[in-house]
Design goal:
Residues 33-125 form the Ig-like domain. It comes from Drosophila suzukii. This is Contactin-5. It holds the Pfam family Ig_3. By secondary structure, the chain is of the alpha+beta class. The chain has one helix and eleven strands, in the order βββββββββββα. The strands form three sheets. It has a five-stranded mixed beta sheet, with no helix packed on it. The chain has a four-stranded antiparallel beta sheet with strand order 3-5-9-8, with no helix packed on it. A two-stranded antiparallel sheet has the order 1-2. The longest helix is centred in the C-terminal third of the chain and has 28 residues, at 134-161.
């Protein structure tokens, strides 16, 4: 099947016109390349720590020729005066590309995209935090949930008593 698509997946049978007739059944499975960035779609990093974004590309007939990274839709320049930015790409059946940014700054916050040459791109939003911790954000959700649970329990008790 030339230019196969997902909808071409299924069971196929080849029949040979002999006496008696002979048939061979085959299962044909088309898989789509899959790109993921581990830990996404939102990543929180402490100021001055190392950002490590990991892009994994699976189900490719061949490894990508290149894997580009962008920050806010601009290709990342690994030789910029900022320094401390590097990429390591391991190609194979599963291709993994690591974007490393040392000593994260507030200006490193934004949208990062991994763009394999022969698969769909994937993006993640990076938030570099100065003194604010995502645990505090999570804690506020837990406190709100706790408060709502207690309120529901009180309403339920009042309803049962009445």
């Amino acid at each position: 099947i030339k230019s196969s698509q997902l909808r071409d997946s299924g069971t196929y049978e080849c029949q040979v016109s002999t006496t008696p007739p002979v048939g061979y059944t085959m299962i044909f499975l088309v898989v789509e390349p899959l790109t993921t960035i581990l830990g996404g779609p939102e990543t929180y990093i402490d100021l001055e720590s190392t950002v490590n974004l990991t892009c994994v590309v699976k189900h490719l007939p061949d490894p990508p020729i290149s894997v580009l990274w962008t920050h806010n839709n601009q290709e990342i320049n690994y030789d910029s005066p900022r320094g401390g930015v590097s990429v390591i790409t391991e190609k194979g059946d599963i291709t993994t590309s690591y974007l490393l940014i040392q000593r994260a700054k507030i200006t490193d916050s934004g949208n990062y995209s991994c763009l394999p040459s022969n698969a769909n791109p994937k993006s993640v939003n990076v938030h570099v935090l100065k003194g604010d911790h995502p645990a505090a954000v999570q804690r506020s959700h837990i406190l709100l949930s706790d408060t709502l649970n207690r309120l529901f329990l009180q309403i339920y008790i009042i309803y049962v008593v009445l």
